[in-house]
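Lecture 7 notes. Example A: sequence first, then its C-alpha cells.
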Amino acid sequence: MSKKDIIAGISVVLATVIIVAAGITLYKAPEDNKASTQTLGYWTEGSQTAQSIVDFVSAVTDKSSDSYIPPEKRIAVFDLDGTLMCETYPRCFEYMVFADYVLNNDNYNPTDEIKAAAQEILDTAWEEKPSGISTRQAAAGALAYSGLTVEELQAYVENFKSSEAEGFSNLTRGEAWYKPMLEVVDYLTENDFTIYIVTATERNIVRAIISGVLDIPPSNVIGTEYGYMATGQGDAADGDYTYTSSDKVVFDGTYYGENAKMCKVDAIVREIGQQPVLAFGNSSGDQAMLEYTITGNKYRSGAYMVVADDEKREFGSEEKGAATKQTCAEHGWTVISMRDDFATIYGDNVKRTH
C-alpha cells in the first residue's frame, strides 16, 4: 500500500470518528423484514386483542417467517359505522346528514315520502332501529340528492361534519372517530398494508367523511351505490348517450341496494380482486366479509369484530355485546371490546351526556 493510500485511509477513519462524535448518522440499513414497533397507545394496557394485532403484523412482515405476506397481498378491509366511527349520535352519520339535508335545507323542497323518511330518523332517535329503516333511508337519499353533482353533495357533508355529535360533549360529527381504530389503520399502513373501507354508506358520502382524517384514496372506498347521469342526457339510456363538454355528472335518483352482507363479498371480489388477509366489522352486515376473509385463505388471516359493550363512554349494551361475543367465539373472530380494549374512545375530554 502506498503512502498516499495510507493517508487517505486515515482521513476516512478520522472523518468517521468526527461524524459519530457529532451524533450524525449517514446511513442506516432498512429493517424491511420487521413490523413497526409503534405502540397502540389508545388501547388498554395489556389488551390481548391489541397484542394479537401486533403479533399478526410482526409475523406477516417478517421475511424469515412462514407467515410472511408480500406487501401487495396485505389487504385489510374495514367497515365504517360502528367499526371506525360513531354510529350513535343518535344515528350513523349518513342518516343524520340525510335528515338535515331534507328537513333543514332551505334550498330543497322534499316530497312527502322523502320527508317522512327523514322524520322517522329523528322520531326514533335513541330507540331501537326500526325494521327496514336502512333501505328506506338509502332509497329516499338517492331521490333527495338527485340532480346534485358529487362535489355538491360532498360539500354539504363537509359542512355537516362541524355539527355537534348529539349525546356527547366536546365532540363534532367530523371528530367522532374511535381513536384506537384509527391507530390500527395507521399501524397497518406503516407496515405496507393496503386499506379499503367496505361499507353500507353511500361511497361519495364516505369519501367526504374520511377527508382530512384517513389517508385512503377515493378508489379504496367501496360503498352503497347511487346512479349517475349527464345533465344533458334527458331520458336517453347511458348506452345511447355520449357525454359532452357542456355536461356535468349528477345523481339520477337510482338506488342499487345496500352494500351489506354478501354484497360486501361480491364488491370485494369485483373491485379489489383478491382476498383480504384482515377484516374489521361490528355488525351482522359485516359477518360475510369477516368469514370470507378467513375461509380458505392461502395467507395467514384474521377477522375482528368491534363490540359496543361500553355503557358509560358510549351507547353500548353489555347484554347485546355478550351475544355478539358468543357469535365471534363460534366463528373464530377476535373480539374488540370497546369497554375492555379501548383506553379511550374519542378522547378523555369527551363525555356521554344523554
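Example B, a different protein, same format:
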Amino acid sequence: MIPAEEEAWSKRRWESFVGMLRRVRGTNSFQRERFSQLAECDEWEGFEDFVSACPFTTKDELARDREENPPYGTNLSFALERYSHFHQTSGTLGIPMAWLDTQEDWDWMLANWDCVLEAAEVDPGARCYFAFSFGPFLGFWTAYEAARKRGCLCMPGGGQGTEQRLRAILEHEAEYLFCTPTYALRLAEVAETAGIDLDAHALKSIVVAGETGGSVPAFRERVTRAWGNDLFVHDHYGMTEVGPVAFETPGGQGGLRILLESYYPEIIDPERCAPVADGETGELVLTTLGREGCPVFRYRTGDLVRAERGKDASGLPTFDLAGGILGRSDDMVVVRGVNLYPSSVDAVVRRFPEVAEYQVLCEEKGAMTEVSLRAEASEEAARALEAALKEAFSLRISVDRVGPNSLPRYEMKAKRWLR
C-alpha cells in the first residue's frame, strides 16, 4: 500500500507535468514534430505512459534545430517577447547553443538552486563569493540570483584574477565559495605561490559545480587539506539544457540527490537505450517537469551515473546518484580492451597532492590507442603516480614530468584530455 502522502505527491507531480504537456503541444512546433504522440497526452495515466510514447532527445538534435532555424531554434513555447534571459551551453562537444528562458522558468530554476543552498546550509545573511567570470554560462548566474533572493550577501568575482579573488575572499570574510572543482584547487595553489595565508579564511563550505569530480573522495580530501579540515565540500549538478538538477546527498559524503519535484530521471544503457538496474552504471536521462518555455523531454545527458533509490525522512521517494557524476559516455577511451574514463583517471591523480596539474594525451598508433600523462610533479611523485595508474587499470600509462606552471590552468571546465 502506498502511503497517502506519497500517493498525493505522485498525483500532484504528474498532474502538474501533464498540464504543461497540454500547453506545450499547442504552441511548441519542435515538440509537436518530433513527438507526435504528444497529442494523446490526455489519455496517459502516469509517467510510464509518457516514457512509452516519448522518444529520447539528444544534444545533436537540439543543435541541428538551431542550425536550421537560427539563432534560437524552434523549441520555444512562446513568442520571443516572453523571454527575458539569455544563456548558452559551454560548447564542450561542439558549437555553443543559445538558450532562452521566460521569467517564470527563471524563477523555477532559482527555486531549484534554493534547494541546493538549503542542503549546503547557506542561511539568509551568509556571505557568498562567486569565483566565476559571469559570461553566458548559466550555472553560476542561477546560483548567484538564488543566493541573493535567499537574502545572502553575494560577491561576484567577474573580471578579477585568481590572486584578487583570494584577497577578496579573505578581506570580506566570505563564508561560502562557489566555483568549479578544478578552480577550488587552483585558488589554493595560487595562494601558496603568492604567499597568501589561507588559515585566516572564514569559509564554511565550497559549493562546486560545472565538472565531474565534486563527489570524489580524493578530490574532497585534497580541498580540505588545502583550505583547512573544518571546511565542507558540497557537490551540485546541473546543465544549461535542463537547469539545476541535484544537490549533495544528505550526510555530506559525496553523491547527488535529484530534485524529483522538478525532474523525472531515468538511467539507460548508452548502447542499447534500455533501462539498467539500480546500482549499475548507465547514462542519465532527464525530463524537465517545469521550464515550459524551452522544455526538454527524455534528454540524454551523456553523463554516467549509478542510481540508489530510497525514501527521505518524510517518506517520499528519493533518487540518488551514488558517487555523483562518474564520467561521460562519449569521453570513454578503450585502451587494450580497458574502458578508461577521464573521471576514473582523475580520481587516481587526485590521490597525489604533489601533482600540481596534469594533461592526458590520447594517440592512435596503428590500430592501437595509447594514453600517456604529462604532470607537473617531482620525479618521485611521477613514478608513484605511474605505479598507481598501473595498479588501478592494469595498464602501463607513462607519466612524463614537465616544468612548474607549464600546463594550462582553468577557471571553468578543465580540458585536460588531448586527442
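Note on Example B: The first strand starts at residue 83 and ends at 88. The CA atoms of residues 115 and 247 lie 7 Å apart.
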